[in-house]
Specification:
This protein is of the alpha/beta class. It is built from 13 helices and 13 strands. Helices cover about 40% and strands about 15% of the residues. The strands form four sheets. It has a seven-stranded parallel beta sheet, with helices on both faces. Strand 4, helix 3 and strand 5 form a beta-alpha-beta unit. Helix 3 packs parallel to helix 4. The C terminus is likely disordered. The protein binds 1,4-dihydronicotinamide adenine dinucleotide and the ligand CC(C)CCC[C@@H](C)[C@H]1CC[C@H]2[C@@H]3[C@H](O)CC4=CC(=O)CC[C@]4(C)[C@H]3CC[C@]12C. The site of ligand LDGCRDGN has 17 residues, from helix 10. It is found in: Endoplasmic reticulum membrane. Keywords: Endoplasmic reticulum, Lipid metabolism, Membrane, NAD, Oxidoreductase, Steroidogenesis, Transmembrane, Transmembrane helix.
């Protein structure tokens, strides 16, 4: 196929952690495309070099919350994978901004699909549209049909739930040219893999404490995790099959899953950090939950006091503590049944790829030597 004869895909948020893996996945595995438009507020110029003689990677700088930007990006395109989002549960940005990007941004994508005659939309939702809620209700090996007391107060999960509802309700609407819009929504659990910003933070934090991770969470609490490459692969397959079987996938939600083991959030992270000499201290939480909760409240107070001077947004706050302390794991085969999804990467490969990347942080870590010396390497 010569460049120009294939379809045009748009990936909103295509320069992000998931988005950039998705662009590479499309380039490697999707033969029906001639152009990938990477629409993002913050462009990663390295993606431009991925163009080849078959597919052009076109970077488009724009704001999803501005309709005109979205309309221009979608003009003449065939399918949109909408991953752009403000992923913030730490209070880094105001709630209004999260709503503006995640909800209004999604409204703009839907409006642009309608006006530009784009027939297919795959939305990157999140496990968070379901839970865990702050009441501590566990979601143990649940699926897309499992009953759960959904309760949202935080801006991020609220915004993802609203956006997903808009996407699913838009399935089947009439668009320009008399055709219909077909949509589906994918719900990843906690995504891990090369480029995960939060893992970088855990790595940096661990270096400061002599490569010791002081256990804060009960090892009995399981948290679903999924490898970024498999999330990207599921998006590619959903996009492909939504065009072939729109009545099957249209208006459906699918949890993203693979064979990553069910573990506590900390123990799962140690699958990678231990390869860099990190050790977890304690077989059970080293501090009682109430003390951790007080620390989380102190962080809220400090964030409030420092607001306007600096953005103080530590990992620990009452919401992240509640989420991390509540089991949320999925066990489903809906994506396999509806569109033949099988993870592209087995657990061992996903683990080795992630370990290789975490180890690369050691090499690139400028402050590595100083930190090790200063922190007297307590875990040797
Ligand atoms: N990281 C995770 O564990 C999970 C993420 N998700 C979802 O996956 C998607 C991707 O998340 P990540 O890759 O982790 O986040 P990310 O922050 O790495 O990527 C999001 C991208 O959206 C872009 N963006 C933000 N505001 C924008 C705007 N106004 N206009 C245009 N682009 C904008 C950012 O520049 C970034 O490149 C999001 O929709 C998120 O809700 C779902 C479940 C878990
Ligand atoms: C008590 C500790 C300091 C807590 C450390 C772990 C937490 C920071 C993370 C535990 C669970 C994570 C969330 C979960 O993976 C679900 C998510 C889905 C998304 O769409 C975005 C990210 C997140 C909210 C994720 C954020 C970090 C945790 C709360």
């Amino acid at each position: 196929m010569t460049a120009g004869s294939g379809q045009v895909y748009v990936v909103t948020g295509g320069c992000g952690f998931l988005g950039s893996h998705l662009v590479r996945m499309l380039l490697e595995h999707e033969k029906n495309i001639s152009e990938i438009r990477v629409f993002d507020l913050h462009l990663d110029e390295s993606l431009r070099t991925l163009s080849n003689d078959r597919v052009r990677v076109r970077l488009i700088s724009g704001d999803i919350s501005r309709l005109a930007d979205v309309q221009e990006a979608l003009h003449g395109s065939h399918l949109v994978i909408h991953t752009a989002s403000l992923v913030d549960v730490w209070g880094r940005v105001p709630a209004s901004k999260i709503t503006e990007v995640n909800v209004t941004g999604t409204e703009n994508v839907l409006q642009a699909c309608k006006e530009e005659g784009v027939q297919y939309l795959v939305y990157t939702s999140s496990m968070e549209v379901v839970g865990p809620n702050i009441h501590g209700d566990h979601f143990y090996r649940g699926n897309e049909d499992t009953e759960y007391r959904i309760y949202h107060k935080e801006p991020y999960p609220l915004s993802k739930a609203k956006a997903e509802k808009l996407v699913l309700e838009a399935n089947g609407i009439k668009i320009k040219g008399g055709k219909m819009l077909y949509t589906c929504s994918l719900r990843p659990t906690g995504i891990y893999g090369e480029g995960h910003e939060l893992m970088k933070q855990f790595h940096r934090q661990g270096l400061r404490t002599g490569r010791c991770v002081f256990r804060a969470l009960s090892p009995a609490i399981e948290h679903g995790r999924v490898y970024v490459g498999n999330v990207a692969w599921m998006h590619l397959l959903a996009a492909r099959q939504l065009q072939i079987h729109p009545s099957t996938l249209g208006g459906q939600v699918y949890f993203c899953y693979d064979s990553s083991p069910y573990k506590s959030y900390e123990d799962f992270n140690m699958e990678f950090l231990s390869a860099c000499g990190f050790k977890i201290i304690g077989s059970r939480p080293l501090v009682p939950y109430f003390l951790l909760y007080l620390l989380a409240l102190l962080n809220v107070l400090l964030q409030w006091v420092l607001h306007g001077f600096i953005t103080y947004a530590p990992i620990l706050n009452p919401y992240t503590l509640a989420v991390a302390s509540t089991t949320f794991t999925v066990q489903t085969d809906k994506a396999e049944k509806h569109f033949g999804y099988q993870p592209l990467y087995a657990w061992e490969e996903a683990k080795m790829r992630t370990i290789t990347w975490v180890k690369s942080l050691e090499v690139s870590g400028k402050d590595l030597k100083d930190v090790d010396e200063k922190s007297n390497y307590c875990c040797s």
